[in-house]
Automatic annotation (TrEMBL):
The lineage of its organism: Bacteria, Pseudomonadati, Pseudomonadota, Gammaproteobacteria, Oceanospirillales. This is 3-hydroxybutyryl-CoA dehydrogenase. GO terms for biological process: fatty acid metabolic process. Residues 170-268 form the 3-hydroxyacyl-CoA dehydrogenase C-terminal domain. It comes from Chromohalobacter japonicus. The record marks 123 as: Important for catalytic activity.
Length: 300
C-alpha cells in the first residue's frame, strides 16, 4: 500500500462522519462519503464546503476500492452489524474496516463478518478534527498487522493512537468519564456542592492538570504512598452504585437534556451554546498545542 495513493471511505454522513472525511481530505487522503439518505448526504456536502476533494455517493457503485473504511453510523449495534457486513461485500479482502463506536464491543459489531481479522474499533473524540487521541480497539480476531497499519494511518492524520489490550464495554475514556460523573452526581444529590461550584473545582484543579499529565504520571509526581493513604480512607465513602443517578434520570424525564434542549444543569440559548462551542474549539487548540509540546519535550 503506497501512502501517496491512500484511499478511504466513510460510511455515514452525520456530524462525525463529515468531520472525519474533511480531516482525511485535508491530510491528502482521497475520501468518499457514502450514505443512503440523499438529504443527509447533501447536508454533509454543505458542511464540508467548497475547496475539498471529497466525493459523495448514495451507493457503492463507482466507488474505488479503498485501503480503509470507517463505519460512522448511529450508535446501535444491530445497525452497525448490518452496515459492516454490507461494507465487506464491496471491498477487497485486504481492506481494513474500522468502526467509530464509542463503546460497543468490537466482536458484537463484527459478528456477521466473513473476515473479522481485518476489523477493529477506532474511537475518535468529538471534535474529531481537533482532539488528538483515538482509542484503537482490536476485537478477539483482529490481526496485529491490522492494528499496526491502522495506527500508522491514524498517525498520518495527526492523531495519537492508543491501543487497548482487550475490548471492554465503554473502552477506557468513557469508563473513566462515567466514573467521574457518578461521583459528581452523587455530590450534587447529597447537597455537598452546587453544579457551578463543582465545575469550578474540577475544571481549575484536576482538569487543568490532566491536560498536562495523565492520571498515572500525576500520581507518580504526587507520590504513590500519598495516594494509597488517601485511598484507604476515601474509597469506602465514594459512590459505588450500579444504576444511574436518580437525579440524572429525573432530568432526562423532564426534558432537561443539556444544551441541545436549552436546559440541563445550566440554562442555554442558541446564542450561548454557539458562543461556548466556538470558544471551546479555540481554547482546545491552544491547550492541545501546549500539552503536545510538553509531551514531546519531557517524556517520563
Amino acid at each position: 500500500m503506497r501512502e501517496a495513493s491512500l484511499q478511504a471511505v466513510v460510511v455515514g454522513a452525520g456530524t462525525m462522519g463529515t468531520i472525519l472525511a474533511k480531516l482525511m481530505a485535508v491530510r491528502g487522503v482521497k475520501v468518499t462519503v457514502v450514505d443512503t439518505n440523499p438529504q443527509v448526504l447533501e447536508t454533509s456536502r454543505m458542511r464540508v464546503g467548497i475547496g475539498t476533494s471529497i466525493c459523495f455517493a448514495t451507493e457503492w457503485l463507482g466507488v474505488e476500492r479503498p485501503d480503509f473504511v470507517i463505519e460512522s453510523v448511529t450508535e446501535n449495534v444491530a445497525v452497525k452489524q448490518q452496515v459492516v457486513a454490507q461494507i465487506e461485500t464491496y471491498v477487497a479482502d485486504t481492506t481494513i474496516i474500522m468502526t467509530n463506536t464509542s463503546g460497543i464491543p468490537i466482536d458484537d459489531i463484527g459478528s456477521a463478518m466473513r473476515l473479522p481479522q481485518r476489523f477493529l474499533g477506532t474511537h475518535f473524540f468529538n471534535p474529531a478534527d481537533i482532539v488528538p487521541a483515538v482509542e484503537v480497539v482490536p476485537g478477539s480476531h483482529t490481526e496485529a498487522a491490522v492494528v499496526q497499519k491502522a495506527c500508522g494511518w491514524l498517525a498520518r492524520l495527526g492523531k495519537r493512537p492508543a491501543v487497548l489490550n482487550t475490548c471492554v464495554p465503554g473502552f477506557v475514556a468513557n469508563r473513566v468519564q462515567h466514573a467521574v460523573m457518578r461521583e459528581c452526581l452523587s455530590l450534587l444529590e447529597k447537597g455537598v456542592v452546587e453544579a457551578e461550584a463543582l465545575d469550578e473545582i474540577v475544571q481549575y484543579s484536576i482538569g487543568v492538570r490532566m491536560a498536562l499529565n495523565g492520571p498515572f504520571c500525576q500520581r507518580d509526581l504526587n507520590g504513590l504512598d500519598t495516594h494509597l493513604n488517601i485511598a484507604r480512607y476515601l474509597y469506602p465513602d465514594l459512590d459505588a452504585r450500579q444504576e444511574p443517578a436518580v437525579l440524572l434520570e429525573e432530568y432526562v424525564a423532564q426534558g432537561r437534556l443539556g444544551a441541545k434542549a436549552g436546559r440541563g444543569f445550566y440554562h442555554w440559548s442558541d446564542e450561548s451554546r454557539t458562543q461556548h462551542q466556538v470558544r471551546e474549539r479555540e481554547s482546545l487548540q491552544r491547550i492541545i498545542e501546549i500539552a503536545t509540546q510538553q509531551s514531546n519535550g519531557d517524556e517520563p
